Amino acid sequence: RFLKYRGAGVNGDQIYPSSPNETSPNGHRRVKLHVSSPPFSTSAAELTNSLPIHSASTAALSPASSAAEDKRCIIPNRLTSYEGPVFGQSLESWQQRLGYPLPSALLHMMDHIESVGVTAHGIFRRPGGKVRTKALRDLIEKDLCWANFEEWQPFDVADLLKQFFRELPECLLTDKLSLILVNVYGCVSAATQWHLLRWVLLGLPDENRVVLQKLLYLLHSLIRHSDVTQMSASNLAVCFAPSLFRFASSTNAYQTSIGFSPRRLRRTTSGPDPKDLADQRTAQLSLTAMITQAPALFEISTDILRKTNIIPNRLEPRSLDTIIPGSSWPTWIQAELGRLIRECSVSRSKNWTVVSKEAWKVYQTGSGAGENLEGLEVHYRKPTSATGPNSTPSLRTWRCSLPIAESEPKKIFEHYWYHRQSWDPDISRVQVLDAISDCVEVCLITQTTTPPQPSAGFHVLRGHQCVLDNGGCAILCESVSHSESDSALGSINIVGRIYQDHVYIRPQGDKSGCRVYLISRVDLKGHSPDWYVKHWGHTLVRRLLNLRRSLQSGAPIAQPINQTGSAISTGSTSQYCST
């Protein structure tokens, strides 16, 4: 039977939809944003003025559009020196370590199940072999990037995936929201149930929403082959509900058992509690609806979106003529450079707040796990109430710095300016749209995204200065509204906003190396303000550590981007990478 499953092979024609209007739920074909079913409908004018949303924090809430060809998920190589356990860790901790709330092994696992699970009768219902599942788990615990699942039965892999969700410190739907959903879902009308499910998604932490969307899209892809697997949406819901929900009975079980003798405890728990059975049935019904309507579930109207705290600011980027009036780019560089140097000086540190001791411990186990953090500094500045064309009241400004054992600032600058996509897993492509001068250009920066998240990127104006008085270098970067931006979008669905993302490379006095500063305030579109407080500092720390690791390894470098229209791969300027 196992050979039959493997022999079936499941090529793209067998797995993925052939119709251009269908979608492969894990992002192999993307859908155009549309809003359906009242009260989430919206007018054409609203859609025209709607705000782009990114990340399944809410990027999940706006599925990407595309006519791209079907293909397997491209999983970025997110490096980490973390050597602890894989199972039993929170999604938030993975977001801090990797920049994504699931380790690569779990992504490969879900991708594998989507491929072979379509021919596995009773997938997720039939248990895997206990010894085989334990052996596979041990391999993943040793290598969180494990990707070789071809030698394992699909039931072993599926069983291990359920184990991962079952052992999360808090259930995927969170203790609070799962109890609310169980208590309310069965008491309201069908139309209100749909409304309730979407509001529950908006109430989830960003990391949980990303993972829930990934899982629901996987399960949705499997029910299209229920005639073979005999696993309908309701059957899958029965298998997964205990792993995704927290029931009141499970939280009170320990309390009710205290003080009872074993014999009396057996008498009091001799039969199932009708309330427990009703709660489990309600959870299964709500999860069935989520699986069946997974693609539509993550689409919301702009009216609903405006009632959330997801989008911190609607201000559009400044135009190129506003930033550089009369093409006077030296004035812009000198003004921004002066502010950058002042912000990085020791005498100005009083304007910054050092992260607390508790937060520092999180950095040691999160983005800095297993790394040498000597000399690392993490500061932030709280948002002010000031308003203006470049202000964001709800976003913090972060300043992170790290010493790097490279005595030539220009080498670090070139590595960052020309080759960032070769060492930064968060960036997949940088393309120059307009070279204003030798040191100032308008670029399209494409982010690395994991399906079913929509593709995202930034239109930025960036410049550099390599001849500073102290021998240092600087890179300036901010979002810009440019005439060529719309035509250059290509496959990018979400355009984020960079208020500032500057780099300052300062030689150290003892000539032992350089200290690299990052000053950043960015809106990726789709995350709540609380997400930036928890994770953006970790994003900058990972960037610094990846830069240091790349310089120390001396690995071969990708083709530099130094001409208009050139990019990571050679070819036409109208071609864009799709992650």
Describe the 3D structure.
- The protein has two domains: 2-72 and 85-306, Rho GTPase activation protein (Phosphatidylinositol 3-kinase, Chain A, Orthogonal Bundle), CATH 1.10.555.10; 320-553, START domain (Alpha-D-Glucose-1,6-Bisphosphate, Chain A, domain 4, 2-Layer Sandwich).
- 41% of the residues lie in helices and 12% in strands.
- The chain has helices spanning 2-8, 12-15, 44-48, 55-58, 91-98, 104-116, 130-142, 154-166, 175-185, 190-203, 206-223, 226-229, 233-244, 248-257, 262-268, 274-292, 294-297, 302-306, 320-323, 329-344, 357-365, 409-423, 529-553, and strands at residues 353-354, 377-381, 397-404, 427-435, 440-447, 456-465, 473-479, 494-495, 497-507, 514-523.
- Strands 1, 2, 3, 4, 5, 6, 7, 8, 9 and 10 form a ten-stranded mixed beta sheet that branches.
- A hairpin with an 8-residue loop joins strand 5 (440-447) and strand 6 (456-465).
What is the overall shape?
globular
The domain count comes to 2
Percent helix among the residues? Answer: 40-55%
- CATH architecture classification of the largest domain: Orthogonal Bundle
The share of residues in extended strands comes to 5-15%
Biggest sheet architecture: 10 strands, mixed
In total, the number of strands is: 10
CATH class of the largest domain: Mainly Alpha
- The secondary structure category is alpha+beta
Give the end-to-end Cα distance, rounded to a whole number of Å.
35 Å
Protein name: START domain-containing protein
InterPro entries: Rho_GTPase_activation_prot, RhoGAP_dom, START-like_dom_sf, START_lipid-bd_dom
Keywords: GTPase activation, Phosphoprotein
GO molecular function: GTPase activator activity; lipid binding
